[in-house]
């Protein structure tokens, strides 16, 4: 009797903007086309992409050496910082190891969370801050938010009053967030700079150096009410700086790419800002994403994971999930991510994109 082997479901979902799809259909996908790589905010979901990051940065992109923009918000910036500081394989592994074993519990005070977050960041970049400034292949671009008015304060009444106002204003229009915060794009000074067309948000273009890049990374991931705003950053304008995901959660930016924007993401959709999560209509602008190739875990892959999804910040305090169980499940999710990287590299070899590519 002949046994018929069932073809396994794909681990990856690939969605392409209009121009990206045309380029891939015409020339296939090769490393020389890639000039920008975004990294979304999203906490520990980022470590669920470890294997994909290692395949992209450790194997695919080195096939065509050139300087590329890495544009990250919150954990997206931390992922990229680890790759630049520790290397394409060790960086993602170090980030995952530190995040998995983060000693967080729900009764922690803000000062304690800030301390363990700083320690985690030091574990990611160590003494390698100069690599983030001078890296020959990658131009790290960190996105943060500069708080305005009462939103600068970490005192409970002022902070939560501001957040209530932000939620209400955002419900009317995302553009109203500009009354509470401004975008900061921070990058090394000695290379061509990442720029974007003006939008509703005032955007500050600043430069980081080896002395203040850790503070900028910390600011980019400073969630209001969880960790305090980062203030008095060396060589920066006075102000309170917060999580870049507040404005640019999944980075729906007008990327001025000349090729393809390769976007390894934990979701198959792009939500503009953190406060837009509750609005299904708040989706990415197709014009902004025309050159984007979005690569994310497929639903069948997510269903196969221990929690039926990627690691999430809520797992630290999820009822019925003790720390030992969380660590075990997160480790398994990270280990499974090698399938994402393997499938991506197999696609690069076969160039069989016609069967898998969907519209973004």
Short synopsis of the structure:
This protein is an alpha/beta fold and 360 residues long. It is built from eleven helices and eleven strands.
Helix/strand order, N-terminal first: EHEHEHHHHEHEEHEEEEHHHE
Structural class of the secondary structure composition? alpha/beta
> Per DSSP, what share of the residues sits in E-state strands of 2 or more residues?
15-25%
What's the total count of β strands? 11
How many structural domains can be distinguished in the coordinates? 1
Q: Give the CA-CA distance, first to last residue.
A: 44 Å
What is the overall pLDDT average?
Answer: 95
Q: What count of helical segments does DSSP give?
A: 11
Helix content: 25-40%
| CATH classification, class level | Alpha Beta
C-alpha Rg (nearest Å) = 20 Å
Corresponding CATH architecture: 3-Layer(aba) Sandwich
Task: Map the helices and strands.
Layout (H helix, E strand, L loop, with lengths): L11 E5 L1 H10 L6 E6 L10 H11 L7 E6 L1 H12 L3 H11 L9 H16 L3 H6 L3 E10 L8 H17 L8 E7 L15 E5 L5 H8 L9 E2 L8 E4 L16 E5 L27 E6 L1 H5 L19 H14 L1 H13 L6 E3 L1
Parallel strand pairs: 1-11, 2-3, 2-9, 3-4, 5-6, 9-10
Antiparallel strand pairs: 1-10, 4-5, 4-8, 7-8
């Amino acid at each position: 009797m002949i046994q018929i082997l069932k073809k396994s479901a794909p681990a990856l979902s690939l969605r392409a903007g209009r121009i990206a799809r045309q380029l891939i259909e015409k020339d296939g996908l090769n490393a020389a086309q890639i000039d920008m790589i975004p990294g979304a905010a999203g906490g520990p979901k980022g470590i669920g992409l470890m294997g994909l990051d290692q395949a992209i940065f450790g194997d695919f992109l080195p096939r065509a050496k050139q300087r590329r923009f890495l544009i990250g918000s919150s954990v997206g910036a931390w992922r990229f910082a680890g790759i630049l500081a520790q290397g394409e394989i060790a960086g993602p592994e170090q980030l995952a190891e530190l995040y998995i074993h983060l000693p967080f519990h729900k009764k922690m005070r803000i000062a304690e969370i800030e301390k363990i977050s700083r320690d985690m960041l030091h574990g990611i970049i160590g003494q390698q801050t100069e690599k983030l400034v001078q890296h020959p292949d990658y131009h790290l671009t960190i996105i943060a938010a500069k708080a305005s008015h009462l939103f600068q304060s970490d005192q409970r009444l002022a902070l939560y009053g501001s957040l209530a106002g932000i939620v209400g204003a955002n419900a009317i229009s995302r553009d109203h967030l500009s009354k509470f915060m401004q975008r900061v794009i921070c990058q090394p000074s000695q290379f061509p700079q990442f720029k974007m067309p003006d939008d509703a948000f005032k955007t500050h273009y600043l430069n980081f150096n080896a002395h203040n890049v850790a503070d900028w990374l910390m600011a980019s991931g400073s969630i209001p009410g969880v960790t305090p705003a980062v203030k008095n950053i060396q060589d920066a304008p006075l102000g309170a700086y917060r999580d870049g995901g507040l404005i640019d959660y999944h980075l729906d930016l007008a990327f001025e790419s000349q090729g393809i924007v390769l976007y390894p993401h934990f979701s198959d959709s792009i939500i503009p800002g953190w406060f837009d999560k509750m609005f299904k209509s708040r989706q990415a602008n197709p014009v902004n994403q025309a050159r984007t190739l979005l690569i994310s875990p497929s639903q069948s892959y997510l269903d196969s994971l221990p929690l039926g999804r990627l690691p999430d910040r809520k797992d630290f305090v999820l009822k019925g999930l003790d720390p030992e169980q969380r660590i075990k499940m997160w480790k398994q999710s990270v280990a499974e991510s090698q399938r994402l990287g393997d499938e991506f590299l197999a696609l690069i070899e076969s160039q069989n994109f016609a069967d898998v590519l969907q519209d973004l």
